[in-house]
Structure formats: C-alpha cells, structure tokens
Amino acid sequence: MSHISNDSFWQHISDQLQSEIPAARFDAWIHSLSAHYSDHKLTIKVPSRFFVDGLKSNYGQRITEIACDLAGSPVTISYEVDASLASHSVQSDKNEEPASPASLVDGFIDPRFTFANFVVGSGNEFCHAASHAVADNPGEIYNPLYLYGGVGLGKTHLINAVANCLIDRGITKIAYRTGERFTNELIQAIRNGTSEQFRNQYRQVDVLIIDDIQFIAGKEKTQEEFFHTFNALYEVKKQIILTSDRSPRELTNLMERLRSRFNWGLVADIQAPDLETRLAILSSKAELAGVTLDKDVGHLLAARITNNVRELEGALTRLTAHSTLTGRVIDLTFARHVLRDLLHEEVRSVNIEDIQKKVASYFNINIREMSSSKRSKNIAYPRQVAMYATKELTTMSLPEIGRNFGGRDHTTVLHAVRKIKKMRDESDDFNEEMNRIINLLKQ
Ligand code: ADP
Ligand code: MG
Predict the structure, then answer these.
(1) How confident is the model at residue 395 (pLDDT cuts 50, 70, 90)?
(2) What percent of the chain has pLDDT over 90?
C-alpha cells in the first residue's frame, strides 16, 4: 500500500511479532534483523545461513502472513546473509545450529494458539470438544484424533492448543510436524543414511502431531514410514493427532491400511463459523491486538468474509496497521477503502435506494411514500418491509436507515425490523413471501 513506507513495513512486522512471541524468542530471532521492502518483495537481512533455516521454520510462515496482510497482496520473501549482523545476534556462532526456541519440544508449537483464545461456536464446537478431551486424556480416548476441514478454520490453532496445554502440564515429549516437513525429513534421512535415527526419534515421543497429513498422500515411501511409526506409537498408547483438508475417505492415493487407521479413533470435521461466531472471533482478535473495533466495521467484515477465519483476521490486521501508520480512525469509509480488494466481490451488493424502489414497486406504491410521513397501513407496511430488508441486506446501522426513510428515529426502524422478524416466525406464508421479496432485491 502506498502510504506504508519501506522502512515502516518491516518495523510493523517486527512489532507485530514482538506482541505475539515470548521476549526471549523475539530477542533471539527477530530483534536484530533488518529488512528492505519494495514492490511486493521483502528482503530480510540475516546473520548466517543457519539462521535462515531456523528463522524460516519457526517464523517464516507468520512473517509471510503479516507481510501479505499488510500489503494486501502476496509478498515474496527472500533472505540475504549479512555477516555484520552476526555480532549483534544471539545466534552468532556460524558453526552452531540455532537452538530450538522450544527446546523441550521437537518442532515449533505456536504459543499464541491456546484454548483460551479459541472462540467456540457453530462449526467448530465438535472439534474443540474433541481436542479438549484429548488434551485432558492423551492416548486414552480418541486415538488418533483426526481433524479435517477447509483452510483457515482453526485446525492448526486447535492442535497447537492441545500441545500448549500438554506442555503446561509437563508433557513435553511432543513431536510436531507438518506433513510436508515429515516428508522432507524422511527424504533427507534416506539420503544421509540416517533412516534409523529418523525412525527412533519419532518412536520415543509421547505425542505425535502431524498438521496437514494430506501431504503424504501419493508418497509411498513416506506413507510406509508413517505407517510403522503410527503402529509403534499406537501400540503403547501414545497420542497421535492429525489434521487434513479432507476426510480420510476423500484422501485418494492413500494406502488403505493407513486410511483405516485414521478412522480408528475420532474423525471430526470443522466447518465455517456462522455470523455470530465470526463477530465473536473478530472482537476477541481485536481485544488481543488491543484495538477497539467499531461495531459497524466489525459487522461489515463478519458479513462479507464468511468462510475463512484467517482472512477475517488478516483484514483486521491490515486495518489496524493502516490506521496506526496513517493515524486515521477505523470507520466504515476507511475500512471499505483499505479492504476494497477483499470486499470487492460484493460491490454488486444491494443499496438502500434499490431496496426502496423495488419494494415500492412490489407493493405498488410510489417510491416517495417510503420517506413520507404517511402512516396509513398500505404505506407503513411496505416501508417496514423495506427497512427490514435494508437491515438484512446492507451493513447500514439503524440510525442510518432511519435517516434514509425520511429522517425517522432508529427506534422506528428497530420496531419495524422486530415486527417483520416476528411475522416471519409466526407465519409460513408470510415467510415465503419475504423470501421472494429478498430474492428479488438481490437480483
Ligand atoms: P487451518 O489450520 O484450519 O487452516 P488455522 O488454525 O491456521 O486454520 O486458523 C487460521 C487463523 O484463524 C489463525 O490465526 C487462528 O488463530 C484463527 N482462528 C480460526 N478459528 C478460530 C477461532 N474459533 N477462534 C479464534 N481464532 C480462530
Ligand atoms: Mg493449518
């Protein structure tokens, strides 16, 4: 975005990371870095090659996410070794592998993802309950636990929450991998002749978590290895947790014996949250970020970004960043401007003039009557229908709607909305007619 300067771009990412990760890790990994941003390319200067690997596997994904949110479009990240940084960095010894930030645990478990900040609502309550149960009784009840569903719905959050919960209780022999990393490690081990070590490393854990297991589909060698690891752990009642973007049945190219094992424990699917849950998630994220989110803006985001929580969160991050950097208040106009590409698909959405015009013609009254002071039933009723439809189909607030209906008070609008809602509940015929009207308005 044009008003984020090159310098402040990295500064913002760094600030954001500082608010998310423990101070010691921030100091070790992020603090001494500098970066240059231009034209959707972010070049991060790092002290050594070793550092790059550690940085990438621990924070690469998060850095990319924040950068993309900030830019509002994909950003390419590259790393440039700058030896002069080495003296400032904790990871200064070039011959030493960077210490794993979570030294007790193998693989990076994101401390931001906890049960406490996971909003439970429609779509995710089953997965949440299952994850909680597993965190309370690892290896005991649901083994394996298999969570699946579309992107950005909270699977990775939940399995990290389980891991964080276990760590808090002193269970630290946890191996956390993505399906991709598991595969790459295996390939590396075969190449280096260290397959035996690879195998042993996994058989000694108390909990094995593989995120995005779908990655191993179609990769025979990896599946074979995973199959044996699975059996070894399962036999001694060690907990296995898997996530995937689809159900075991839909995983084509998967060995039958693995597929059946994935079904041995509990398979739970996660679905997109409803409007109410999306609003709750937004307000929770806003609170975590320490910003107050205008109600109308929250409503706009929750209404328009419907099936990916990550995008919802990204929109909030972008708004906050732009507001901080430009000093502007986040109101509806600002939000619509900053997020215009995200909200773009919806520009065809209905506006209030359209609604008034179409409802008036449906009931055969003059459009001017919508804003007139007349209260006769044949006028008041269509007007109430139009007010209700405006509330349902636009993001306008009650006072805004009132103003557009001849300067009426918001309580009048509220009364209309409630009345029509009630009538819909009470009469199937009326409900059907309303559905017809709403469909007309959407065309
Ligand atoms: P997935 O792994 O299913 O693709 P993630 O777990 O990475 O999705 O979630 C994407 C983002 O949305 C994360 O930042 C996560 O914290 C957030 N998120 C998803 N669902 C919820 C929820 N119910 N409450 C709070 N945050 C959520
Ligand atoms: Mg995920």
Answers:
(1) confident
(2) 64
Closest residue by Cα to residue 441 from 367, 361, 384 = 361
Looking at the structure, tell me whether residues 129 and 239 fall in a common domain. Answer: yes
Give the tokens for residue 226.
Answer: 């995973």
pLDDT band at 368 (very low <50, low <70, confident <90, very high): very high
The CA-based angle 48-49-51, given to 5 degrees, is 65
| Closest-CA residue to 244 (of 147, 158, 131, 134) | 147
Atom of ligand 1 nearest to the CA of 158: 6
CA 181/CA 44 separation, integer angstroms: 23
Has residue 96 been placed in a domain? no
Could you tell me if the CB of 309 is within 6 A of ligand 1?
Answer: yes
Q: 316: Cβ below 6 Å to ligand 1?
A: no
Question: Looking at residue 150, which CATH number applies to its domain?
Answer: 3.40.50.300
Residues 267-290 have a mean pLDDT of 93
CB 64 within 8 A of CB 77: yes
Q: Is the pLDDT of residue 329 over 80?
A: yes
Structure tokens, 125: 């309550």
